């Protein structure tokens, strides 16, 4: 009997070992397939994150390079206008020219310090704003002076490469134009020198990480100015080769390269300024672009570990309980669909909608994103129309219908959803039908939802900063020039008149000197508010630098109408301003140019208005002057 019991026990142990061995063998085979597949999905998701970072960085640097190019274009245009005005002053009154240059730099309020040099027709320096000339200084060998001397009567702007000045002793970028007498003969050359670092100030307005860079480069590859986060890098004069510094590179683009100046790998966006022979670049370090998704990558690895553990446990349970295999496989397929979406959109909320019940299931993070009141909620198109912004509804539903009908493999849509406090939030919703009826009707769709409100606000802020003055909120030179061009097209098409009014503030410098720049800034804001109140809704008031403002009247009946508006502006400027308990009394010098009497295009109108403003200054300030021809 004991022998029989012992034999039976051995048989039970052998059967149990055999069963466990078969289960372990099947589990090993299952895991040999499932675990590599899981980590392959994790790897693919991480590759997609790197691709997303690359694409996002390319968009950012291209957008910022466009904004930087427009700022450089605005700066060079301002310098060119100043050169044109200063050479007229030189021809009219050389004795007072030093005072005029000093006044110009005062109006710029330190934002752009210009060193001015004038040569005679042989290229010998005869005037320098930086100080008295110690002796004869021959500048005829400088390319920007040589270009003007050999121009054969052409009035072209020349831009030199960065050099250490013989007169100032400092590194500057030189801009020059010939000085031509009334008969067209050459009287000399006027040169304006600007520190290369001025072109790098745009860096402070971007946020692309610790190793971002911006550069201003001549089209032949000579570096004009370059700045990184840690310091203003003194690379002026270095020569870069290859695209985009070779002919045929195109007007704009992007590239990925290890910097030949500091050895940092970056994504770059670039734009050309062909009218000035310049190229601007904005770069973001690859490590900074990828760092934005470091949390998601860590989360993906954690999810991979959790999924791997679940696969081990689930596989053991599924194989040990073979009778529940079909139900377990179905549950695993549904769970796998959720996990795959979660892996492809780490950090986002997950939702699951059943067409049969009309109910949507939300993960905790999804509840927070859409400000929902529960986990399981009724949902249909009527609910969606009430929660989504009316401007977004049709486009979202159209994209959803295309996916439900099988026209697209995935669904993705961006729209604004109303929160419980009444505010709007931008969200990105993605999904995929995971179950269909035999006839193809969708039964179930699973997806993710992400909060993209901050990204949308950042995009709007970048667009706003690129087109508006930060102090007054008025349009800047870029936006004003665009509206002027549009108004000119309308005027040419309809045969009507328009006007440009250019003015700056008299006695503004004493306000800054006496009360400080904070009071001066408040005064500029009050000037913007008061003058804007004196204009029509269709008119444009812009601040283009310092205390200089310009007004566009897109439609006027006759030339005297523009003068009446200018006189109304002058009345507003003559009224005292009360700022922080200070009574400030200023005025303005105002120039008026009317299309087509004063010019046939935007440049001629702006130049005529600017010259008219200087005429007002010569007439004693606090008055209005007009120009009848460009």
- Cα separation of the termini: 125 Å
Q: Give the helix proportion (percent range).
A: 40-55%
Backbone shape? elongated
CATH architecture of the domain at 468-627: 2-Layer Sandwich
Give the CATH H-level superfamily of the domain at 468-627. Reverse transcriptase/Diguanylate cyclase domain
Count, helices: 15
Largest sheet: 6 strands, antiparallel
Mean pLDDT: 84
CATH topology of the domain at 468-627: Alpha-Beta Plaits
| CATH top level assignment of the domain at 468-627 | Alpha Beta
Sheet/helix structural class: alpha+beta
Q: Radius of gyration in whole Å, from Cα?
A: 35 Å
Low-confidence stretches: none
Q: State the total count of DSSP E strands.
A: 24
The fraction of residues in strands falls at 15-25%
């Amino acid at each position: 009997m004991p022998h029989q019991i012992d034999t039976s026990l051995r048989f039970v142990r052998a059967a149990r070992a055999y069963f466990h061995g078969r289960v372990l063998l099947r589990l090993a085979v299952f895991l040999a397939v499932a675990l590599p597949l899981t980590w392959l999905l994790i790897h693919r998701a991480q590759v997609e994150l790197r691709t997303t970072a690359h694409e996002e960085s390319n968009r950012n640097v291209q957008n910022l390079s466009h904004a930087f190019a427009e700022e450089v274009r605005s700066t060079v245009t301002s310098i060119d206008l100043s050169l044109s005005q200063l050479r007229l002053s030189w021809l009219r009154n050389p004795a007072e020219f030093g005072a005029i240059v000093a006044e110009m730099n005062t109006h710029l309020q330190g934002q752009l310090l210009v060193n001015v040099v004038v040569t005679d027709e042989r290229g010998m320096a005869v005037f320098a704003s930086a100080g008295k000339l110690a002796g004869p200084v021959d500048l005829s060998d400088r390319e920007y002076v040589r270009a003007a001397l050999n121009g054969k009567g052409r009035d072209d702007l020349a831009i030199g490469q960065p050099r250490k000045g013989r007169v100032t002793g400092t590194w500057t970028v030189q801009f020059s134009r010939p000085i031509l007498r009334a008969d067209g003969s050459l009287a000399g050359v006027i040169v304006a020198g600007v520190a290369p670092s001025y072109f790098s100030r745009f860096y402070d307005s971007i946020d692309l990480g610790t190793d971002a860079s911006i550069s201003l480069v001549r089209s032949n590859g000579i570096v004009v100015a370059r700045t990184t986060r840690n310091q203003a890098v003194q690379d002026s004069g270095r020569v870069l080769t290859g695209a985009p510094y070779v002919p045929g590179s195109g007007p704009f683009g992007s590239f990925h390269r290890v910097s030949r100046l500091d050895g940092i790998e970056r994504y770059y966006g670039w734009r050309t300024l062909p009218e000035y022979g310049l190229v601007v670049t904005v770069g973001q370090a690859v490590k900074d672009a990828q760092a934005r998704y470091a949390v998601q990558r860590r989360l993906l690895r954690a999810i991979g570990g959790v999924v791997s553990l679940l696969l081990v446990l689930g596989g053991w349970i599924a194989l040990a309980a073979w009778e529940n295999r079909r139900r377990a496989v179905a549950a695993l397929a549904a769970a796998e669909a959720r996990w795959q979406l979660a892996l492809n959109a780490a950090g986002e909320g997950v939702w699951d909608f059943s067409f049969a019940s009309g109910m949507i299931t939300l993960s905790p993070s999804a509840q927070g994103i859409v400000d929902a009141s529960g986990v399981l909620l009724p949902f249909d198109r009527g609910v969606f129309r009430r929660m989504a912004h009316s401007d977004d509804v049709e486009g979202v539903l159209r994209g959803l219908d295309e996916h439900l009908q099988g026209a697209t493999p995935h669904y993705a849509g961006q729209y604004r959803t109303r929160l419980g406090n009444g505010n709007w939030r931008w969200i990105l919703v993605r999904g995929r039908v995971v179950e269909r009826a035999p006839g193809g009707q969708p039964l179930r769709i699973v997806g993710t939802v992400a909060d993209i409100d901050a990204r949308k606000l950042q995009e709007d802020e970048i667009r706003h900063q690129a087109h508006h003055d930060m102090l007054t909120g008025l349009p800047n030179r870029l936006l004003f020039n665009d509206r002027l061009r549009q108004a000119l097209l309308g005027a040419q098409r309809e045969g009507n008149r328009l006007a440009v009014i250019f003015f700056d503030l008299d006695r503004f410098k004493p306000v800054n000197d006496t009360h400080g720049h904070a009071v001066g800034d408040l005064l500029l804001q009050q000037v913007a508010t008061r003058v804007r109140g004196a204009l029509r809704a269709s008119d444009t008031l812009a601040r283009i630098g310092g205390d200089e403002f310009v007004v566009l009247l897109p439609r006027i009946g006759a030339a005297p109408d523009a003068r009446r508006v200018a006189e109304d502006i002058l009345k507003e400027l003559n009224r005292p301003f009360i700022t922080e308990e200070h009574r400030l009394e200023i005025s303005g010098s105002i120039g008026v140019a009317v299309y087509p009497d004063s010019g046939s295009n935007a440049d001629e109108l702006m130049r005529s208005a600017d010259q008219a403003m200087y005429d007002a200054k010569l007439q004693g300030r606090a008055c209005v002057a007009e120009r009848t021809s460009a």
